[in-house]
Amino acid sequence: MDQPASKSEAADSSRRSPGLIGCLLLAPLLIWVVAFVVAPALIMLVYSFGEREVLGGVRLAFSLRSWSRVGDPIYLSILWKSVEYAGLTTLICVLVGYPVAFVVGRADERRRPMLLTLVMIPFWTSFLIRTYAWVTILKSRGLLNSVLMQLDWIGEPIEMMYTPFAVIIGLVYTFLPFMILPIYGSVEKLDPSLIEAALDLGAGPWRTFRRVILPLTMPGVSAGILLCFVPALGLYAVNDILGGGRVDMIGNVIENQFKGTARNWPFGAALGTALLAAFALAFWLTRRPDREARIGI
Amino acid sequence: MKSARRLLKAHTGLVLLFLYLPILVLVVYSFNAAKLNVIWKGFTLEWYVRIWSDTGLTRSLQNSLIVALLTTGISVALGTTGAWLLFRYRYPAERLLQTLVFLPMIVPEVILGVSLLILFVVVHLELGFTTVIISHVTFCFPFVMAAVQARLVGMDPSLEEAALDLGATPLVAFRKVIVPYLMPAIVSGALMAFTLSLDDVIVTYFTASASSRTLPLEMFGRVKKGVDPSLNAISTVFIAATVLAVLTAQMFNRSGARMAHATLGEGKDS
């Protein structure tokens, strides 16, 4: 009986109101997201106000002790150091990755899939394995030192492992594909005639890049920054392997509160919540409705 | 302009070299007879053979495969139906739901791991396979959903209508028309989920127990102690598997485009 109605509705738009069955079918997804994404975040927030007990347990309370520790100069300086590391990593990734994304995105149709696959493979390869690969290269009797000594450029092996240098290399190596791929997405959508128009109208290559190409590919760059910067803040494993625990980052501090010797869950929860808030802020800033890219030559 | 283009290409070449050289070094050294030295002492398969007598590695590999398979199965079910329902129906607060679904894809892993650990402790769920699989599905199924949604964008809505008009129930239409159409995306999403689950270190670190240790956790523990040729060997196996998975996923996506045209053509004929 109601068939004609639903049909005309379908003609208006292919999407219908879900009804009871549609809602029931969505229930598993909804429950999953509420139980394992929303609830954990809220419980973490609640825990951050808890009190630590003697044996490492947690008593629920409304205590600001953990939060005031987040503001402690020691942790603020670690947080700042992490921001520096993550920021430097992101900056290097943008500078190194953008030209690559541009070349891949503007390569001719036949070669593009191959180039894209070449970028995809490291993206999907375990970062643990990729970080570990650097140990062989950077350790004091490793490949790089051996080569440099063979060439007589250095007399003694240089200590490269467990230095900020090693950590930055490891982080850049981990996140570079995460920067290239979103920028590639923007470059591929770029209309070549816009570039030609700019060049025809007398803008030099640099000006064309700055006034036309860069604004139009900015969504990809901000997505890349989001995918690099925030995870780099929390990726303590690279730091564990290449920094040997001598380089303190916020991820290591959080990890230590839960699994390590520090054992202070409320404090770890407070740090985790703070990092989540920082992430939400970064997300909001990069995902604001894209203002129409202004093109002016 | 010409020289600029050449410079860009040279730069790209160098970056690709930077991306692949360490992996190559790892693979080459997995065949090196020397145990700790960087000097090449001849070709050997000894380290590959050793993997099989190393119970720490074999047991954790077994755990990893169990976890990855179950994670992939649940992720495909959740991700595919979720994508389809959100495509077909108009739900309230859809955008919020989408954001929440995709959050675990991009949130720092340490936060995901820690918050899930606290949840499991609060609800007294003992750490083990269940907790590892729950946490893996949470960050894997969004990838399946994203892949399927990307394919749904290009779908002709008349495909389902035609099936329904011809008398198929919505369930039959979904199984016989929609799922085959989505298959390439489902396969590539499943491969992503499998790879991600197999590779994960950080979230697993917080949610696994000693008996449900996965291979990456076992490797992480050893990597911190330094270089070990068995690790080179098992890493090489992993890299080979990843390359294979990426190539397969890409192949499916491409033949998927052709399959789509064929399916749509048939749909229009009938």
- Name the biggest interface: A-B, 88 and 83 residues
Helical residue percent band of chain A: over 70%
The secondary-structure element order of chain A is HHEEHHHHHHHHHHH
Q: CATH top level of chain A?
A: Mainly Alpha
Sketch the major β-sheet of chain B: none
CATH class of chain B: Mainly Alpha
Rg of chain B computed from alpha carbons, rounded to a whole number of angstroms? 23 Å
Mean pLDDT of chain A: 84
- CATH architecture descriptor of chain B: Orthogonal Bundle
Number of E-type strands of chain B: 0
Helix count from the secondary structure assignment of chain A: 13
Q: What is the fold-level CATH name, i.e. the topology of chain A?
A: MetI-like fold
Q: Indicate the proportion of strand residues of chain B.
A: under 5%
Number of helices of chain B: 11
Specify the biggest β-sheet of chain A.
Answer: 2 strands, antiparallel
Number of domains of chain A: 1
Kindly give the count of domains of chain B.
1
Query: How much of the polypeptide of chain A forms β-strand, as a percent range?
Result: under 5%
For the terminal residues of chain A, how far apart are their CA atoms? 61 Å
